[in-house]
């Protein structure tokens, strides 16, 4: 049997595709680093956004969840806002902002430059992402834990489709933010009454 000759146009397209993928991964990494540095620099003023109502709560949650491995005071603002605003509206605004903010971890994993790949917690979470996929994303985003950034990175590395990741993360964030908003509503109103 003769082997088919390689088509130079196909080979050129493959090289261009690899270069564009590497470029997109590099840009994604730069975006994640820039967002993290920006949010870390304004971390003391993030709580002021909650004065703008639901859009402010959305921004606080987005910024708090956009940092990768650096804490920001998002959940505390959601808890306090639950006693001031409608807790369901707070949950929706914070859950949506939080899910969009979590894309930074996903992009860090997608970029292929993830530092966490050599950590013990990553070695425990990545098999769950591979085996259960979006269910792992949903559960880990629904419970308060410091490991969701690693799950987002693992999802990006596993190449879970971004819209599916975003949807599962959104559902989980709605659950978590709803619990904090209603906890703030019932506990703070009970204390003050």
What can you see in these coordinates?
This protein has 193 residues and is mainly α. It has one domain (9-192). Helix content is 75%, strand content 0%. α6 (120-132) crosses α8 (148-157) and α7 runs antiparallel to α8. The model has no long low-confidence stretch (mean pLDDT 78).
> What would you call the shape?
elongated
Strand content: under 5%
Helix content: over 70%
Could you say how many structural domains there are in total? Answer: 1
| Structural class by secondary-structure content | mainly alpha
Report the strand count.
0
Quaternary state of the chains: single chain
Overall mean pLDDT stands at 78
SSE order: HHHHHHHHH
- Rg, alpha carbons: 20 Å
Give the helices and strands, then pairings.
Elements: H1 8-41, H2 54-66, H3 74-84, H4 87-101, H5 103-110, H6 120-132, H7 134-142, H8 148-157, H9 162-192
Helix pairs in contact: 1-5, 2-3, 2-4, 3-4, 3-9, 4-9, 5-8, 6-8, 7-8, 7-9
Summary tags:
mainly alpha, 9 helices
In short:
This protein is mostly helical and 193 residues long. Helices cover 75% and strands 0% of the residues. The chain has one domain (9-192).
């Amino acid at each position: 049997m003769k082997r088919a000759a390689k088509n130079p146009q196909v080979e050129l397209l493959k090289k261009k595709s690899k270069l564009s993928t590497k470029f997109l991964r590099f840009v994604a990494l730069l975006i994640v680093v820039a967002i993290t540095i920006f949010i870390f620099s304004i971390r003391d003023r993030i709580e002021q956004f909650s004065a703008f109502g639901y859009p402010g709560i959305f921004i606080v949650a987005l910024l708090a969840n956009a940092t990768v491995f650096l804490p920001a005071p998002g959940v505390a603002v959601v808890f306090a806002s639950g006693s001031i605003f409608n807790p369901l509206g707070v949950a929706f605004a914070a859950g949506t902002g939080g899910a969009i903010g979590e894309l930074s971890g996903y992009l860090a994993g997608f970029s292929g430059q993830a530092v966490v790949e050599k950590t013990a917690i990553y070695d425990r979470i990545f098999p769950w992402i591979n085996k259960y996929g979006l269910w792992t994303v949903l559960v880990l985003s629904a419970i308060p834990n410091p490991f969701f950034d690693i799950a987002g990175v693992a999802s990006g590395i596993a190449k879970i489709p971004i819209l599916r990741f975003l949807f599962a993360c959104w559902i989980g964030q709605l659950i978590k933010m709803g619990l904090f908003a209603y906890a703030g509503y019932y506990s703070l109103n009970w204390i003050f009454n």
